[in-house]
# Entry
Amino acid sequence: MFSFFEKNTEIPTADSALPGRAQAIEIDSVHLVTGNPLHGPWPEPLQVACFGMGCFWGIERLFWGLDGVYSTAVGYSAGHTPNPSYEEVCTGMTGHNEVVQVVFDPTVISYGELLKHFWENHDPTQGMRQGNDTGTQYRSGIYIHSEEQMALAKQSLADYQLTLQGAGFAAITTEILAAPDFYYAEEYHQQYLIKNPGGYCNMQGTGLHCSIPSTTAGDSVNVGEGS
Ligand code: MHO
# Structure
């Protein structure tokens, strides 16, 4: 549909972004794979992580398959437009990224382990693109929910940058932001690859190993400072 045009590679300003709407998209309440709720509030000790790694269909499947992951959902985040539609996100005029919200039990899988899966399953050096998918909605992003997540994200970025550099890759373009609003994507996008077995999956890593980050107690970081 957009093949004759260069897809937008600049995030619009809040003023130039599409206006969106107050009404949230309604989606089913139960995850088709885990059987758990798609919406919070989440019982203790569950925590929330959020990642942008390109087209969200394959990325959601990656995370729902991990031990300790309670629920996942796909949505739009890190842009300006409230409650956007997929078509609006595809215009590049919402500023949103395609993201996966991961609800996990940290006593079974750590945030550091989720980060390892994040880095190893996409190419974080591609800017406003992931493989064949081009545009600001395919950028690499980590949207953190706590200072601990921020510290681990920054540490793992620095470590993985060295690994990538050693293999001849360019600089990491991943954005690390204090979790912006998360808007659920339309029902047909939720657990898409269960509804459409054999459907499009553009998940491709660099093939380079990432070690699991660990922070020392007392690390002090500024949430929202960026990477
Ligand atoms: N190239 C894919 C991307 C889908 S994804 C949800 C398509 O246009 O169908 O961005």
Observations:
- The domain at 47-195 is CATH 3.30.1060.10 (Peptide Methionine Sulfoxide Reductase; Chain A).
- The pocket of S-oxymethionine is lined by residues 55-57, 98, 133, 200 (CB under 6 Å).
